[in-house]
Amino acid sequence: AAVTSTATGVAAVRTKSGLPSTGAANHKVDGSRTQAPAATNKAPTFPANAPASLSVAENNAAGAPVGRVSATDSDGDALTYKLDSASDALFDIDSSGNITVTAANALDYETKADYTVTVSVHDGKDGFWDPDTAVDATHSLTIAVTDVEEATVANRAPTFPATAPSTLEVAENNAAGALVGTVAATDPDGDALTYALDSASDAVFDIDSSGAITVTAANALDDETKASYEVTVSVHDGKDAAGAAGATGGATHSATITVTDVPAVQETPEPVAARFLAGRGRNTLTSIEFWWRLPVQPAGVTVSAVEVQVLPSSVVGRSWRTVASLAPVADGGRMSHTVIGLNPGEWFSVRIRLITNSGNADLESHAILKYGLPKPVADLSVSNVTRTTVDLSWTLPRQMPASPPVRELRVQQRGANGDWTTVATLPDDSGDPVDRPPPTDVIHCDRTDCRHVLHLPHTPRLVIWERGLGDGVDDHAGGKSEPGGGPDGLEFDRYDD
After folding, report:
1. CA dihedral in degrees (193, 194, 195, 199; nearest 10)?
2. 213: closest CA among 236, 231, 238, 190?
3. Which of 32, 30, 55, 39 is nearest to 4 (CA)?
4. Hey, how many other C-beta atoms are within 10 angstroms of the C-beta on 175?
């Protein structure tokens, strides 16, 4: 509202429209004073002499001037002009009210001879200077398209419309023939059209007779390698201007094809197919051989290395230690490895880690073998040596819980021909470890302390036979004393058949 002062000294309140405000109160003021009226924004207007008609020749170039329709603003505000939506597809108008042709050859007298155009204007403010883009004034006029004498053309070339896409998208790693998009031209004569791509794009994409662009080869696009392609599409109708056969006439259109990223699907690798099996007759007190088969991996998963890892039980703060890195064999193939440097009687774990392009098959899917190696007899000594006999004594060590139980004790002596002959045994048919009083008196044992009288002069050897590892093969540990060596010459070793 605006406040004005009357000659009688009465203040009147006026609304934005200038009409008295409903319920406005009058108030007498000192007649010697006059209150200045509040300033308001003046809206722009079209003058009475604004043109009611304009004309432009048909087949004109883009940007060709049509005429000017301008408004005035008493406040000198900058003005914004706009055309009605139908007219805006054919004509443009700038900030001075100049109307121009939007696209070349868009106007054709024979098709449409005139257009009714409405021009609107605003100064971006309301009556109180607040921002407001509402239309302040409009003006209607007619734009006539004038005829131009045209030379007779036997054939008209195809053109790409203004709406032809300038950007297209396609996902990476797509299949051959995957559709990217369509860039189609029009031909005023209805001729069949032939499309082509520039040579660089033609190596990656194809285009058919309808302008549809497709991927040439499967998996040819990779976002990480090349994220976009600049493509030029050309078209012709196979005729020249006179209508004779030829590909001289035509048009081109440029577009950018963006390759979008597709997150890779990580296949989970398959771990080794079976738990480890002991090698046949190749285990010692400090080593063990085992084998496994590589499983068939899912599509896209490639095994690059096979790691053998060991977890000893006796190491403080123990962690998995890689003892071998092997080249993989074909899926389903058999692999083997011998772990060495183990402690007799100690249990340990072994696992296979498959190194693949989709991660490792390790902790959550490994196979573990805990196999306690047997301990040899301890404290093997001789006493009461005579010409024909010698007393042997030793201690039977207690085996680890994971070790195979001892099933038999043998005392052997070697003859002059070098062959070993068993001269005493302590069988254990129960399957329990031999750590209890023996059932016979061939070898005398008290829990773990054993003794035996051996007849000389042959080299003695004590052998502990263990239970097999599932392959029917026995392993054994022992100690030996050379003839005449006595206690000082006693030594311990491992004997294998």
Report:
1. -160
2. 231
3. 39
4. 12
List the end-to-end C-alpha distance of the chain, in Å, as a whole number.
118
Structure tokens at 323: 């003892």
CA-CA distance, 489 to 169, in Å (whole number)?
87
450 to 13, 146, 241, 392, 453: CA distances (angstroms): 127, 128, 117, 8, 11
Single-letter residue type at 38 = A
Which tokens is 434 given? 């031999």
User: pLDDT tens-digit profile of 4-33?
Assistant: 444 444 444 444 444 444 444 444 444 444
pLDDT digits (tens, 9 = 90+) for 357-409: 776 765 433 334 445 556 677 777 888 877 777 787 877 776 655 555 566 67
Contact at 8 Å (CB) between 181 and 144? no
> What's the chain's Rg over C-alpha atoms?
52
Q: Which DSSP state fits 489?
A: G
Beta partners for residue 334, in sequence order? 293
> How far apart, in whole angstroms, are the C-alpha atoms of residue 75 and residue 122?
12
Cα separation, 172 vs 149, whole angstroms: 53
**What distance in Å separates the CA atoms of residue 183 and residue 168, rounded to the nearest whole number?**
10
